[in-house]
Amino acid sequence: MRALVQLAVFALALSLVRCEHDFSRYSFQTTLNTQENGGLYELYWTFDNEAEKISFAVRVNAAGWVGFGLSPNGQMPDSDVVIGWVPSEGDPVFHDRFAGGREPPTIDEQQDWVLKGGEEENGFTILEFSRKYVTCDDYDLPITPETARVIWSFHATTDPTSEVLTFADRHSHRGALSLNLLGGLPDAAPDPLGLDSYDITVNGITIPESDTTYWCAAFKLPESIRTQTRYITKFGPVVTEGNEAHVHHLLIYLCDGINDTHVGNGGVCDSDVPRQVVACRGGTLIAAWAVGGEEFVYPNNVAYPFGGEGFPEYLVMELHYDNPPKIQGTVDSSGMRMWYTSTAREYDAGILRLVML
Ligand SMILES: *[C@@H]1O[C@H](CO)[C@@H](O)[C@H](O)[C@H]1NC(C)=O
């Protein structure tokens, strides 16, 4: 009797303890989609070369279904996918499926991806599953030491009503990226589909009616970049449509000596903005574009580390506008777009601290 009471107390205590989900058994982690892009999608994985087995966990800010899989080329046709969801009542639903085309994936006869656990809490769906590298099912793609094209999808709010999916169960979000699953490091040449980007633009300023204007605006890095180092692989201009003749060049500088009060649309560099902002034009130039220029792409395997602890939290952009005909009231929201990845292996390469992707 006493043992029974103890057991009951123990069980009660267990049910009251809310633990953060433990992903520590996974060796690798990457973010497939960010909160800003419609819902965080985190991937964890680990592999065992002896057992030739790979285990995954996905943690997705979605109350609906979650999809994950491998594709020959990052697109949906001929991809080997799993789709799972956690109904409000009952056990998680999870299937190894195959997408023949841009159509709801069908359930494989042979179920080689195996669910290890599934839960939904606080708007996050967590699924854990594993499979053999090679399954001997024509409807599965092998996991090899080569770069894999990983595809992901989810529906932010709604579970399917049946295991047989229809077009009504279409994803609300999807994407793809290249990952070396058995090396744990990203592909040397990042797949543009898998890159995040960050726009540094002014917001609806009026181009002054003078021949030439140097416009200065200060920006604070978003929290997601301030707190974690990202790796810029490419940048290029985002010029407001119709303003191509006015936007002459764009320069982005890192900036240390300013604070939140300086952030905003700015103004004419030498007359309208505080000297602290103007002074940043003497600092580190990280991106430059001038009319006639193209996107700048870092060489394969090279990127520019950006953000994270100790990195300047502010940027200053100088926009050079031309307006010889003195056209009035041209509204502009131009600037620079930086593409970045979130994982890299660092090495020192002289003055520019380059990183190896
Ligand atoms: C921001 O910088 C300005 C100019 O250097 C300074 O006067 C002001 O006190 C600073 N504000 C904050 C909140 O740090």
TrEMBL record:
CC terms in the record's Gene Ontology section: extracellular space; secretory granule membrane
Superkingdom, taxonomy of origin: Eukaryota
A Pfam family: DOMON
Record keywords, A-Z: Membrane, Monooxygenase, Oxidoreductase, Signal
CDD domains linked to this entry: DOMON_DOH
Annotated InterPro entries: Cu2_ascorb_mOase_N, Cu2_ascorb_mOase_N_sf, DBH-like, DOH_DOMON, DOMON_domain, PHM/PNGase_F_dom_sf, Tbh/DBH
Keyword match Oxidoreductase: yes
Localization, UniProt: Membrane
Alphabetized Gene3D superfamilies for the sequence: Cellobiose dehydrogenase, cytochrome domain, Copper type II, ascorbate-dependent monooxygenase, N-terminal domain
Gene Ontology biological process: dopamine catabolic process; norepinephrine biosynthetic process; octopamine biosynthetic process
Signal peptide: 1-19
An example molecular function term from Gene Ontology annotations: dopamine beta-monooxygenase activity
Family: Belongs to the copper type II ascorbate-dependent monooxygenase family.
PANTHER family, per database record: DOPAMINE BETA HYDROXYLASE RELATED, MOXD1 HOMOLOG 1
Protein name, as recorded: DBH-like monooxygenase protein 1 homolog
